[in-house]
């Protein structure tokens, strides 16, 4: 894990012990770590995960074509991002107390080094009413339910993706995955807290969500008089070895206007483990037994290589991690990835929130979110001096085309009038080389696509 700097606003973050506690503006450092080993097992696991999700999306598309909407839906923010940009995958080591040792690639000179495993837990908080969940341009979204802030909903289950490796000779050992579900409206005395940082480089105020951290049990914690945490422990035996998908059922009802989040923690059941001594993952140094102890390696993604994640105003879907040791004033908090001001590879965790509602607001592509945009084509891509965005609509309507950069700033916009099809042309001659996003908006629907400027 790279050395990172974290900047959070003073006086606006509720602490895990006292929800009224103000925190001063400060810098938080997470220990530097070398590069983890991404061996063939991990690469194959990512392929299997992608194949599983592709089949699920295809099934959703088929269902939508038959106009058979469902009141249950999967919400996974990293999956959404992978539809609009290229994401870099990784599978970090994870150990419950920050005292296990792992084999890493040496920074210089080749070979391997041994270092502590600092990642102890990871999580995600979602706002299921956020508008991007309802973009008909994303494969598999059409026909899915739409929630708004007035809807109650149920967390049916949580699914996390990664790779479970273990020592096959230790057949009697039972490890544990700990899933801790939290919900709340944000603000004081909410078990899902709101974090503000007011001085982004684009002038916006960053608003994101975080979980409180239980320093004893290494999972999400209740804040003040907020809703109690629901904890489910999933036993892992030798029969679960090499699994890349773990799921638990909650059946938890969530009140209207409440965010929902989950933390995920792996705990060894092996009594032979010795802190700061045992190399729990030995990797290629012992190829016949890379895992001395059972270990869960979560699937994670970097959105912008060498940059911070893209922040779009209004988006409060927030991934977060917890690393140890933590001697800062944020010891009782998970750290949202939005808050890192340096490059960080563990930006988005791969977690499904399977939600249902008996009376959802509407359906993607039906009613309030009209399926009017039938096609968007961008050319040339990459663009040098100009880019053309051609669109086709099912019915004539007022249409806007907007270009934004990776931090959500509007670069240019054109109102195309009341049209059934058209083409917007933008000059790119004065734009910096890099990734940009164009959005076509018509009749309440918006489709976002990615293009590259190269000079």
Quick rundown:
With 455 residues, the protein is mainly beta.
Please, could you describe this protein's structure?
The protein is mostly beta strands. It has 2 domains: 4-362, no CATH class; 372-453, Immunoglobulin-like (Sandwich), CATH 2.60.40.1930. It has 2 helices and 30 strands. A hairpin with a 6-residue loop joins strand 6 and strand 7 (112-116). The longest helix has 26 residues, at 40-65. The two termini are 33 Å apart.
Would you spell out the secondary-structure blueprint of this structure?
Layout: E1 4-8, E2 26-30, E3 35-36, H1 40-65, E4 72-75, H2 77-82, E5 88-90, E6 101-105, E7 112-116, E8 119-126, E9 145-146, E10 153-165, E11 175-184, E12 192-197, E13 206-214, E14 219-221, E15 230-236, E16 245-254, E17 259-267, E18 279-281, E19 295-298, E20 300-302, E21 318-323, E22 335-336, E23 348-349, E24 351-356, E25 362-363, E26 373-379, E27 386-404, E28 410-427, E29 434-442, E30 445-453
Q: Structural class of the helices, strands and pairings?
A: mainly beta
Strand content: 35-45%
Give the mean pLDDT. 81
- Count of alpha/pi helices: 2
Low confidence ranges: 1-32, 64-69
Largest beta sheet: strand ordering: 15-11-17-8-21-22
Major pleated sheet? 6 strands, antiparallel
- What is the terminal-to-terminal distance? 33 Å
Radius of gyration: 23 Å
Shape: globular
Helical amount among residues, as a percent range?
under 10%
* Strand count: 30
Oligomeric state, counting identical vs distinct chains: single chain
Structural domain count: 2
């Amino acid at each position: 894990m790279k050395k990172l700097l974290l900047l959070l606003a003073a006086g606006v973050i509720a602490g895990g012990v006292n929800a009224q506690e103000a925190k001063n503006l400060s810098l938080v450092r997470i220990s530097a770590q070398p590069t983890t080993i991404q061996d063939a097992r991990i690469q194959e696991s990512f392929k299997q995960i992608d194949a599983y999700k592709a089949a699920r999306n295809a099934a959703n598309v088929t269902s939508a074509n038959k106009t058979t909407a469902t009141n249950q839906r999967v919400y996974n923010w990293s999956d959404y991002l992978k539809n609009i940009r290229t994401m870099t995958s990784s599978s970090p080591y994870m150990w419950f107390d920050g005292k296990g040792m792992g084999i890493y690639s040496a920074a210089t000179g080749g070979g391997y080094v041994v270092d502590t495993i600092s990642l102890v837990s990871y999580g995600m908080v979602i706002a299921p009413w956020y508008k991007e969940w309802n973009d008909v341009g994303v494969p598999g979204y059409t026909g899915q339910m739409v929630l708004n802030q007035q809807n109650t909903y149920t967390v049916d289950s949580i699914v996390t993706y990664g790779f479970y490796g273990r020592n096959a000779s230790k057949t009697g050992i039972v490890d544990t995955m700990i899933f801790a579900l939290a919900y709340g409206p944000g603000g004081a005395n909410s078990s899902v807290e709101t974090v503000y940082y007011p001085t982004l480089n684009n002038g916006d105020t960053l608003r994101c969500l975080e979980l409180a951290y239980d320093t004893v049990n290494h999972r999400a914690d209740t804040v003040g008089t907020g809703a109690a945490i629901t904890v489910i422990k999933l036993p892992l035996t030798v029969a679960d070895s090499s699994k890349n998908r773990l799921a638990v059922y909650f059946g938890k009802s969530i009140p209207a206007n409440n965010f929902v989040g989950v933390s995920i923690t792996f705990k060894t059941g092996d009594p032979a483990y010795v802190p700061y001594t045992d190399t729990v993952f030995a990797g290629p140094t012992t190829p016949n037994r890379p895992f001395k102890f059972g270990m869960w390696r979560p699937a994670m993604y970097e959105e912008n290589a060498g940059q911070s994640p893209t922040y779009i105003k209004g988006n409060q879907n927030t991934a977060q991690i917890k690393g140890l040791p933590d001697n800062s004033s944020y010891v009782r908090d998970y750290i949202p990835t939005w808050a890192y001001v340096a490059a960080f590879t563990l930006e988005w965790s791969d977690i499904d929130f399977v939600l249902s509602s008996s009376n959802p607001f509407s359906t993607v592509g039906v009613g309030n979110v009209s399926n009017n945009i039938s096609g968007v084509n961008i050319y040339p891509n990459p663009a040098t001096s100009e880019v053309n965005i051609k669109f086709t609509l099912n019915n004539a309507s007022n249409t806007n085309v907007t270009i934004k950069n990776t931090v959500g700033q509007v670069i240019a916009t054109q109102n195309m009038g009341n049209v059934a099809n058209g083409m917007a042309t933008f000059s790119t001659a004065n734009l910096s080389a890099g990734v940009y996003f164009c959005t076509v908006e018509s009749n309440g629907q918006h489709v976002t696509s990615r293009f590259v400027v190269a000079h």
